[in-house]
UniProtKB/TrEMBL annotation:
Superkingdom, taxonomy of origin: Archaea
Record-given protein name: ArsR family transcriptional regulator
InterPro entries: ArsR-like_HTH (IPR011991), WH-like_DNA-bd_sf (IPR036388), WH_DNA-bd_sf (IPR036390)
Organism, as annotated: Aciduliprofundum boonei (strain DSM 19572 / T469)
Length: 144
């Protein structure tokens, strides 16, 4: 029986050693992130940054968020043009109104340059999206 106990202890020690290995922890994290993405896709039918803001109900604001995530910093006219491509029409007045609401909500930032306002996704929104994707931010491991 001592021989069997020694073998079991040796197997347990090896398992413990490998389960605490940093590389395997990293691989488990990647797999968990991948499974999270699959679950998002199954639940919502797509992987979109608007998923992290369920409080944003109107479709124009949701599309503005996607446009800014896709293209980066844009002015009101550029955002309106992108909306026209996807929706067929868009009003600068409505786009400005939606942008102001998104700025108030902290999802979008506005940088005023001379006579132009440039809009971009806020750092808060980017961090929230990266967390949903399971991506480490500044060495912060997202654990389940």
């Amino acid at each position: 029986m001592d021989d069997l106990e020694k073998r079991i202890r040796k197997v347990e020690d090896l398992l413990e050693k490998y389960l605490e290995n940093d590389y395997l922890v990293y691989i488990r994290h990647i797999l968990a992130s991948y499974l999270r993405l699959i679950n998002i896709y199954v639940e919502y039918g797509k992987i979109s940054p608007t998923i992290i803001f369920p409080e944003i109900k109107d479709s124009i604001s949701r599309e503005i968020i996607e446009i800014l995530f896709s293209y980066g910093s844009l002015n009101t006219s550029q955002i309106t043009d992108e909306l026209k491509k996807s929706r067929g029409k868009a009003s600068r007045r409505i786009v400005r109104e939606k942008l102001n609401n998104l700025v108030e909500a902290g999802i979008v930032e506005c940088d005023e340059r001379k006579n132009e306002r440039i809009y971009s996704i806020s750092e808060y929104a980017v961090k929230k999206w990266l967390k949903v994707l399971g991506i480490n931010i500044k060495g912060d491991v997202h654990k389940e």
